[in-house]
Every structure is written in C-alpha cells, then in structure tokens.
Specification:
Blueprint (H helix, E strand, L loop, with lengths): L14 H18 L10 H25 L2 E5 L1 H7 L2 H22 L7 H4 L5 H20 L5 H13 L4 H18 L4 H24 L10 H20 L8 H12 L3 H10 L11 H7 L1 H25 L2 H19 L4 H17 E5 L4
Antiparallel strand pairs: 1-2
Helix pairs in contact: 1-10, 1-15, 2-14, 4-6, 4-7, 6-7, 6-8, 6-15, 7-8, 8-9, 8-15, 9-10, 10-12, 10-13, 11-12, 13-14, 14-15, 15-16
Amino acid sequence: MTMDYKKYDIFSPMIFVLLVLVYLIFSEIAFHYHLHKLIGVDQFTIVVIVLGIAFYILGIVLSNYFLKNKEISVNTEKIDKIFSERLVLSVVIIGILLQIVNLIYLGGIPLFSGYLKARAATRIWLLSYLIFLPSINILIAKYDNKKYYLLFILGLLLFVSTGYRTTAMAIVISVLITLYYTRNLPWKYLILSIIAIFILLLAVGYIAVISIEWQTWSSTPIELLFYRAGYTLQVLDRAVFLQGSTHGQLLYNTLMGFFKSSDPRVIVGSTTLGYAHSTTSTIFGPALLDFGLYAMLLQMAIIGFIINLIYKVQANAKNIFIALYAIVMAHLIIWIETGPTDLVVFLYYLISIIILIYVVNLKKVGNE
C-alpha cells in the first residue's frame, strides 16, 4: 500500500501546529508527575503560544493569497547547470571529510564526553554541516541512486558522534521528508522511519546526558524526553514575563555570536534562570525576550509565509525544491524546542530564498 499524497500530506506546513500540540502534551506529562520538581506554567503562557500558532497560520494564509492566480515555473537549465550530479556528490563528500577532520581535531568522540561536546561546534563543524545537509538532500531528491544512502548513513553517524541531537535529527527528518516526496514511500516504511527517528532522539539525547561528567541526577530515556519538554516550556514561561529584557542581544548573537565565540542560548539561560547555562526556550522565546510579543507574532507570520511559499513551489516544481523544503521544515520542527538561535538555519532560509528568486518565475493567470 502506497501513500495517497493528494489525500494525506503529513509534512505540509500544518504539521508544525500538530507537533506544537504534541509538545504541550509531553510537557503536561512532565508537570503532572513533577519530573525533577517541574511545576507547570502560567495560563497566559499558553495564550501566548496559541497566538503564536494563530499568526503562523495567518502567514500561511497570506502566502496562499500572494500565490493566488499565479502560475509557478522554474528555469530547469539553471538548476541543472548549478546542481550537476558530480558537483553535488563532491560537496557531500567534502562535508563528510570535514566532519572527520573535526573529530580528529577534537581528539575523541564528543557524544561520550561532555568536555569534548562543549568544544565540538567548531568552525569546521559549521562548514561541514552547512554544506552536507543541503547537498545530501539535493543528491537524494534529484538523483535516484541507492548508493547515495550509504553517504547519508555515514554522514549521519559522524554528526551523531558530536553529541548534538539537533543536527542528527535535522539530517534524519529532512532526508525522510525528501524521500516522502520523491519515492512514494509505503505506509509501513514511513511508520518505521518515524519510529526510528523517535528511538534516535531518545538514544542520542540520553547518551549525551549520561556522558556529561558533572551530571549528578539520572532519568530514564522516556522521562528525559518528557522532562526536556516541560523544562523548556517553563523557560518560555519565564520569558513571557521578561519580554524585551535582552534588547536584541539574542538576535545579534545568533547572527554574529559564532564568530565571537558567544552562545545566544547562554544568554537565554542567564536571563531566565539567573545564571549562565545554555538553555532553550521554544520557538516563541527568543523573540519575546528580545523585542516582546508583537515581534514574536511577526516572526511567526513571516515563518508561516516563507515555509508555505517554499512548500507550494516544491509541490509544483519538485526537483531541488523538495530538498530545500525538507531542510527548512526539519529545522522548523526542531525549533519547536530549541528556538531560532542557530546561524546555520538562518543561512539555509537565506539560501532557499536566493534560489527561489534566481530560478522561479511567477506568472499571473486568470482574474483576481
């Protein structure tokens, strides 16, 4: 039995809304059982989340209105010239080699050491991830060669070894989305893939936590999953009542912090917890802390507009646009917990927009 994509499109932009609700359920479980003394959040925080979701949906609606009565076409000559199989394959291999060099430079496997993990996000790592993720998705989307799955697995293992859940999850989720739209996956393979992603999430997160040498408390992998959801929501709860307190520092350090060796998530921790600690605050938190509620709502509307625009283009043009959509959607899903505090993700959005402008044509047809 194969997927009926016209009837079921589980990776449409609305999947974000569903997963936010799932995240809230996970956090409520953590609050109910008071995992590691979690106590819950104020009702106003839930109102803020609902408003954020509403403006995300508004962005989707505005995007649909923008594309109304417009025919989408692409310049395939430009695409084929830029993204030749040999070039894309070479970039994938370079990304893998850079990650190997990074691990050699670190002198060990960061997944098994908190000290190494703290140093793992080097400039080599950034460049490796920046080129590997889009190139492996483009390679799989554009060229149907099962040998390329071996490169995907090798790259995944190398990035898992750094101990960062987000990069590993982004690679797996984005490739799954790419396969979903290009290979007409049977339901059973799709379900098995989702289960595998869930297990990977548990395993990498749990191993990374127990490998932190100074960690004193313990949890089961399932408890840790629920706890992280509840903990992050409590950080958001504090951010809701500290709106505008960072005065743009988070955005500035997201864009420039890597080059200055500063971490915006440490600023989140310092502001909401009162001490320096790398902390996430959901997709809604950073904008609230920087500029307040209106900025967060504007952010959500912009994200909804852009993600739906890329979604509509990939639905019509296929090709590399499936890969671009897979990448930004994978990170949007991850942002539900981590928030937009990663320079590399902003670069992916920028690259996607530049490619859209360069090769996509919108021709007005019919009447308004």
